[in-house]
Structure to design on (393 residues):
């Protein structure tokens, strides 16, 4: 695998490893973020007969304290310190910034890698993701050089497809270069995983995560600064909701606590299947039970009753910002470009294939569509009023 300033050269003949015996020892990156915290919690929920140890590689010195706080905030069980260990790492640095001895110890223990860490900067050019792309290279080399050849599971994003000209989104590596540095960085990483599998026949997989919604069990909250709660605040401010979400009108969101469980089941599926040379495993993690956005509008009447097309909604939002120039910040204005490009009508909704995901995950097979109960939970967490019909009950 080669790229500008980043190359991986691997022999083509490698004896595929046998599926790892349980219990597994897992290396997890990005554990302190929203999805990462839920992945860690799902790993901890498995008994020691399945998961012996969990090594969390993070960039910060105080990752353990951040992790404890993240679990507590989301109402998740506390850290199991006898099984979970934190290591400060630098992605893109030689040996991840670890000593030779520490790296060798990990290589003798790790039986599964879940690489979830990635900066979410949509305005950053591709070059800004260089060290993170190099980190993927280094994890692939780690897996190859390890005597256990641990499967490498890369958490990618369906934005790769949203940012390209694709309408049908298959569960296979894309060769269409998407727009934007963030999507391009994920695209490059996926291609590296594909090249690794083709070169070695060793197990690796790409898990493309779509829209992650807030949790529906336990504590925690859908981060209020993300695009959907921001859209609702903007709609409340201008007194009108969007009538359609354009290409994203088929709601295929999955709650974060369910996403983490699906990832666990995909991991078990991948680790139990020897790789075949040239066969990259790709899983689109999106809800196969979709619902149209307008079916959710009755649950949003506490925010606004009127619905308008995208062009009119954008005009109202721009007008609101113009009429209140001294306001501390009109909700949604900073995301106007996103809303314009994503929700413009005239394009059919994306069609996302999820066959591999449902084959690997029983949780995915039993997914329900986004529904009123979930939506009411999220609205309450964000401080929005209930639907008007319910407000009088």
């Amino acid at each position: 695998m080669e790229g500008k300033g980043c190359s991986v050269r691997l022999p083509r003949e490698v004896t595929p490893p046998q599926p790892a015996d349980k219990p597994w020892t897992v290396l997890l990156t990005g554990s302190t973020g929203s999805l990462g915290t839920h992945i860690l919690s799902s790993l901890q929920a498995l008994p020691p007969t399945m998961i012996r140890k969990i090594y969390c590689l993070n960039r910060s010195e105080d990752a353990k304290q951040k992790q404890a706080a993240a679990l507590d905030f989301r109402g998740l069980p506390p850290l199991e310190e006898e099984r979970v260990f934190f290591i400060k790492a630098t992605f893109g640095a030689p040996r991840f910034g670890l000593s030779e001895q520490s790296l060798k110890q990990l290589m003798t223990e790790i039986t599964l890698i879940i690489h979830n860490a990635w900066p979410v900067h949509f305005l950053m050019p591709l070059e800004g993701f260089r060290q993170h792309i190099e980190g993927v290279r280094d994890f692939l080399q780690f897996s190859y050089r390890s005597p256990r050849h641990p499967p490498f599971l890369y958490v990618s994003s369906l934005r790769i497809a949203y940012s390209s000209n694709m309408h049908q989104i298959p569960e296979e590596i894309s060769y269409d270069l998407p727009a934007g540095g963030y999507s391009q960085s994920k695209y490059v990483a996926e291609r590296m995983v594909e090249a690794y599998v083709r070169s070695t026949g060793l197990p690796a997989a790409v898990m493309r995560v779509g829209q992650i919604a807030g949790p529906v069990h336990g504590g925690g909250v859908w981060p209020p600064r993300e695009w959907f709660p921001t859209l609702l605040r903007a709609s409340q401010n201008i007194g009108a909701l969007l009538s359609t979400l354009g290409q994203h009108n088929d709601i295929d969101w999955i709650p974060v606590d369910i996403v983490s469980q699906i990832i666990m089941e995909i991991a078990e599926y991948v680790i139990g299947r020897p790789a075949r040379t040239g066969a990259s495993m790709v899983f689109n993690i999106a809800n196969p039970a979709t619902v149209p956005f307008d079916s959710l509008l009755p649950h949003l009447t506490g925010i606004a009753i009127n619905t308008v097309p995208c062009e009119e909604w954008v005009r109202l939002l721009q007008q609101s910002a113009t009429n209140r120039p001294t306001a501390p910040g009109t909700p949604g204005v900073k995301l106007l470009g996103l809303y314009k490009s994503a929700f413009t009508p005239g394009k059919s909704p994306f069609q996302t294939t999820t066959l591999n995901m449902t084959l690997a995950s029983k949780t995915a097979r039993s997914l329900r569509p986004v529904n009123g109960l979930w939506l009411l939970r999220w609205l309450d967490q964000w401080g929005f009023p209930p639907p008007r019909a319910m407000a009088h009950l």
Remarks:
- The chain is about 40% helix and 15% strand.
- The chain has a mean pLDDT of 89.
